[in-house]
Specification:
The complex is a heterodimer of chains A (152) and B (751). Chain A is of the alpha+beta class and 152 residues long. Chain A folds into two domains: 73 residues, Beta-grasp domain (Ubiquitin-like (UB roll)), CATH 3.10.20; 76 residues, [2Fe-2S]-binding domain (DNA polymerase, domain 1). Chain A is built from six helices and five strands. A seven-stranded mixed β-sheet of chain B has the order 10-11-8-18-15-16-17, sandwiched between helices. The chains are: A alpha+beta (152), B alpha+beta (751).
Chain lengths: 152, 751
């Protein structure tokens, strides 16, 4: 059994320590908001926060999350910055298919927690790891700025 | 694809089901509305007897008006909520918003109370002109434009009738606004739709109903409207098929042959040797294209994949192509005339040319690479099969699943979930991934695992799973007169037929020519004398399929780069030259060209090191133009800005149209810059986003989309933004380098 804290709640997981955190979240804990896109940390759909930093859960083994604080998209609505990002996403009508957007929101939230007023370049750098096949990038850029503005 | 939808009352049902008659899936329909009958949700609708108790084919006999029961599409709750059952797949294009807007416009309900759900699979939800339930061809709004407004108007009329009966007054004295029936004058009574719905459902559907004739009366149509599915897609709660869970459900991963149609020759499938925790079973199953593979079942994706990846399988592999050799063969074919697709004027006209342009183009196979890898959840029982998937092809899939499971189509309950993209991949005439999932479920039964299963494809499985945009070679010779005007155009296209051998062949192949390969060439809007087009359709062991904008993905590139070349030969401005070859009949082309000329700064100075290129193309009834502003940095093409214009008739939701034009443009730009699937002896060489790159945010150009105002009926929106982006960029590159790019993805070194 491996102990970790997910969205503020202590959990014990009975799984091979090599199991990627993504599948622990999705299949053991029922937190399916975190998405499987590539399995090799190149698309960002599985982005979660591990001890406050954005990581790709598809190549983060459960063992690396032992004792850590993991925050997923399901907790963003109750996070001040996360909620501001979600609201900005809705205001700017960002989503299309929506599959990558959990990862986009997690990456943008991490950016805004680290930088209150990100530049265009900061946004591009922070989100370049998150692929969107619907091509919502223009509205993502606008929404990140809108969220930054809303957060003041 | 356009031709498919022009086929009047054409019906693929007969083509799909040669062995068993397709019954109207009335059980599904009753279940759909029955779910609403139990509690809060009350369906408005019509007596069950009126429910089209026949086959869709009968309902679509010429001259017979198909009456759509509002109950199949609208549920009004006692809480005044209005739920629209959307018969198209929501996979990004916004049908959960645009289609409810059409109904709400006529129903005159309160938009704030409107939500959307996927309709079940049933014949009442078939494409009105085509007879199968499907999402594709940029048809969702265009094909629902009349139908959904009529459904909304019928429902409103039934609510009015109910209120009139209750108040014992003339219906003419009633009006509606925001979900309330209002008495004009008299006692000025008001009653919410929610209080009328139960009675209204007992009425017969009016046989004839009027809809708003004057666009000035529209309250919703034409208003930028935010998506109704936005919140659930930013808080992680939106359910995709990959998120579906059932009690006791297991996960399966399949080892598929490395060459399409390959078979397992020998494999060590001794389960006692497997020590991975959670492993349940493994067995050989039939897979697509007559092949076989090994399914591994476990209590999670990771253990299933771990076991799968460790399997030692010896394969019997059929022959398959190596891309370099295939290209050489295609080029040899392209130098010989093929089956005629267009033959205007004289074949000898080119002999009199003062000069010639000769060009050969190469286009690779392309993967759809949707963000959500293929997957499906199957619960197979002796007498029914429940399936959850993000299907673009419900009717086809229902039939194929039934055939694989040994059931009747009406025993297959296909539940459509959100899909994480699709771009054509989830509209497969052979339902490859679903049929395979049925075989997994059957294998589990044999292995004593009588539980539901979710089959998940890894990204690598998805990328290597076939059904690509076909590889093509075009060879074109253009004769010019002394003034640089075209006097002859000889064009040969080589590529696999997408629809050959499928239920769609009857509608899309004529005299051996697959129209999905020639669309955009044979129907060019430009006045091109002595145009002759012929095709070769080689058979190659690589499955191919429609990919966002289908044939236009390559034909627009060839036509729009060559027209640009002709403009340069005539020493004319590229936009002015195009306009000179477009007559008044092509007002949409002219309109979008004029808009991008004005909005892009065309003809005005551009930042140092940059140049602009233009392209315009019609597809799916709409015309889209892009002007791309491009530079070359570190020997790589960089697109800084794209100015777009689209004429799509009435823009039902301009906010959605803007999103789709951007989306389609990005999709085309990804392919132009990077997209390439290659094969070595039949085995696909790419596997994931590291070797099949797609556009990322740091490469995203600044974009502006301009919608040409129109009151015409809506035409396609999801795809028309894709075809013109690659040629617009290539034409800008020519301005920078003087070189014409003939090979995709772009390779500056090859030009």
């Amino acid at each position: 059994m491996i102990q970790l804290n997910v969205n503020g709640r202590g959990v014990s997981v009975d799984a091979d320590p090599a199991t990627p955190l993504l599948w622990v979240l999705r299949e053991h804990l029922g937190l399916t908001g975190t998405k499987f896109g590539c399995g090799i940390a190149v698309c960002g759909a599985c982005t979660v926060h591990l001890n406050g930093r954005p990581v790709r859960s598809c190549n983060t083994p459960l063992s690396a999350a032992a004792g850590a604080h993991v925050v997923t998209i399901e907790a963003m609505a109750s996070d001040r910055v996360g909620r501001a990002v979600q609201d900005a996403w809705v205001r700017n009508d960002v989503v299309q298919c929506g599959y990558c957007q959990s990862g986009q929101v997690m990456a943008a939230t991490a950016l805004l927690k680290a930088k209150r007023n990100p530049s265009d370049r900061d946004i591009d750098e922070a989100l370049a790891g998150n692929v969107c096949r619907c091509g919502t990038y223009a509205r993502i850029r606008a929404a990140v700025k809108d969220a930054a503005k809303a957060l003041g | 694809m356009n031709r498919l939808f022009e086929a009047d009352a054409a019906n693929v049902l007969a083509q799909l089901s040669t062995t068993q008659p397709i019954k109207l899936a009335r059980r599904d329909f009753l279940k759909a509305t029955g779910a609403a009958g139990g509690g809060l949700m009350l369906a408005i609708g019509l007596p069950a007897g009126a429910l089209l108790g026949g086959r869709i084919a009968q309902a679509q006999e010429p001259g017979k008006k198909f009456v759509y029961p509002p109950a199949a599409f609208i549920r009004i709750g006692t809480d005044d909520s209005v739920t629209i059952l959307v018969n198209k797949l929501e996979f990004g294009q916004g049908v959960f918003t645009s289609l409810p807007m059409l109904i709400a416009e006529e129903l005159e309900c309160d938009w704030k109370n409107v939500r959307a759900e996927h309709a079940p699979a049933a014949q009442v939800y078939a494409h009105p002109g085509f007879g199968i339930q499907m999402t594709g061809g940029s048809q969702s709004v265009a094909s629902s434009w009349q139908q959904f407004r009529v459904i909304g108007a019928a429902a409103r009329d039934m609510l009015l009738t109910t209120a009139a009966q209750r108040w014992k007054i003339d219906k003419a004295r009633l009006d509606t606004r925001d979900g309330v029936v209002i008495e004009i004058g008299g006692q000025k009574r008001r009653i919410n739709y929610g209080a009328l719905a139960e009675e209204a459902m007992k009425l017969e559907v009016p046989a004839k109903i009027g809809i708003k004739a004057d666009p000035r009366d529209f309250r919703l149509i034409g208003k930028p409207t935010r998506r109704v599915d936005a919140r659930e897609k930013v808080d992680g709660s939106a359910q995709f098929a990959i998120d579906k869970t059932l009690p006791g459900m297991l996960i399966a991963v399949v080892a598929r042959p490395p060459v399409f149609g390959g078979k397992v020759k020998q494999a060590d499938l001794d389960p006692t040797k497997i020590t991975v925790k959670g492993f349940k079973a493994m067995f050989v199953i039939p897979v697509d294209r007559g092949g076989s593979g090994v399914a591994v079942v476990a209590d999670g994706y990771w253990p299933a994949k771990t076991v799968r990846d460790g399997l030692k399988i010896e394969w019997d592999l059929p022959a398959g192509p190596t891309t370099s050799e295939q290209l050489a063969q295609y080029k040899a074919l392209a130098s010989q005339p093929g089956l005629p697709a267009r033959a205007d004027g004289s074949p000898d006209a080119i002999d009199g040319a003062a000069r010639r342009i000769e060009a050969e183009f190469e286009f690779p196979y392309l993967a759809h690479a949707a963000m959500e890898p293929l997957n499906a959840v199957i619960d197979l029982k002796a007498d029914r099969c429940d399936v959850w998937c993000g299907s673009q092809f419900q009717t086809v899939d229902q039939i194929r699943i039934a055939q694989a499971a040994g059931l009747q189509p009406e025993q297959v309950n296909l539940v459509t979930t959100f899909a994480g993209g699709g771009f054509g991949r989830r509209a497969n005439p052979v339902s490859d991934y679903l049929v395979e999932a049925v075989h997994v479920a059957k294998g589990m039964k044999t292995a004593g695992l009588d539980v539901p299963v979710k089959v998940i494809w890894s990204r690598e499985d998805d990328m290597r799973g076939g059904y690509y945009r076909p590889l093509h070679v075009h060879r074109v010779a253009i004769g010019l007169d002394a003034k640089g005007r075209p006097i002859a155009w000889q064009h040969t296209i080589v590529g696999q037929s997408i629809v050959k051998g499928t239920a769609f062949a009857k509608f899309l192949i004529k005299d051996g020519v697959d129209h999905t390969m020639t669309e955009g060439v044979v129907d060019t809007p430009y006045k091109l004398p002595n145009m002759r087009v012929s095709v070769h359709h080689p058979d190659v062991n690589v499955p191919v399929l429609w990919w966002r904008s289908v044939g236009h993905t390559h034909t627009a590139y060839v036509m729009e780069t060559l027209i640009d070349e002709l403009a340069a030969a005539a020493k004319q401005d590229p936009i002015a030259y195009r306009l000179s070859l477009l007559d008044a009949k092509h007002a949409r082309h002219r309109a979008v060209l004029n808009v991008v000329r004005e909005k892009s700064g065309w003809g005005r100075p551009v930042a140092k090191g940059r140049a602009r290129g233009v392209a315009v193309h019609e597809s799916f009834g709409s015309v889209c133009a892009h002007v791309a502003e491009v530079s070359i940095e570190n020997n790589a093409i960089r697109v800084h800005r794209v100015t777009s214009a689209i004429d799509c008739g009435t823009a039902v939701n301009p906010l959605g149209v803007e999103a789709q034009v951007q989306s389609a443009m990005v999709f085309g730009l990804s392919a132009a810059l990077y997209g390439k699937i290659t094969l070595n002896n039949g085995a696909v060489e790419q596997s994931n986003f590291h070797d099949y790159p797609v556009l990322r945010i740091d490469e995203m150009p600044e974009v502006s989309v301009h919608i040409v105002p129109s009151h015409a009926a809506p035409t396609g929106v999801g795809e028309p933004g894709t075809p013109p982006i690659a040629p617009a960029v290539a034409n800008a590159v020519f301005q920078l380098t003087g070189k014409r790019l003939r090979r995709l993805p772009f390779d500056l070194a090859s030009a």
